[in-house]
């Protein structure tokens, strides 16, 4: 299979599939602030709700970036004895 050969040549795991590549492409586009409608068109999705699945991954990364970089998140980490607060704790605290 062509994908498997190129994945091996690139040092990628043998579990790479065309779907993996599409998912990675969409996630990287959205992480780079590409418009959801543009990504929908590039992927050939008839309905934007199909493309919105990829925004969940991006939202999770956004939470991680906030918890790592924002002063309020770091202050909560210090208050919790050096452990980062759970997402639930962070949401409850405001």
Please tell me about this protein's structure:
Helix content is about 70%, strand content about 0%. It starts with a helix and ends with a helix. α2 crosses α5 (about 55-70) and α5 (about 55-70) crosses α6 (about 70-80). It has two domains: about 1-50, no CATH class; about 55-94, no CATH class. The chain has helices at about 1-10, 20-30, 35-45, 50, 55-70, 70-80, 85-94. It is mainly α. The longest helix has 17 residues, at about 55-70.
Structural class, from helix and strand content?
A: mainly alpha
Please describe the biggest sheet, giving its number of strands, its sense, and whether it closes into a barrel: none
The SSE order reads HHHHHHH
How many domain regions? Answer: 2
Counting DSSP E segments of at least 2 residues, the number of strands comes to: 0
**Contiguous helical run count:** 7
What is the overall shape? flat
List the main descriptive attributes of the protein structure presented here.
94 residues, 71% helix, 0% strand
Can you describe this structure in just a few lines?
This protein has 94 residues and is mostly helical. The protein has helices spanning 2-9, 18-31, 36-43, 48-51, 53-69, 71-79, 87-93. The protein folds into two domains: 1-51, no CATH class; 54-94, no CATH class.
């Amino acid at each position: 299979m062509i994908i498997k050969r190129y994945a091996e040549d690139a040092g990628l795991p043998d579990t790479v599939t065309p779907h993996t590549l599409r998912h990675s492409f969409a996630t990287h586009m959205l992480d780079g602030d590409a418009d959801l409608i543009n990504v929908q068109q590039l992927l050939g999705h008839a309905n934007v709700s199909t493309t919105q699945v990829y925004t969940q991954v991006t939202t999770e990364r956004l939470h991680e970036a906030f918890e790592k970089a924002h002063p309020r998140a770091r202050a909560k980490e210090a208050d919790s004895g050096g452990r980062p607060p759970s997402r639930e704790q962070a949401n409850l605290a405001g």
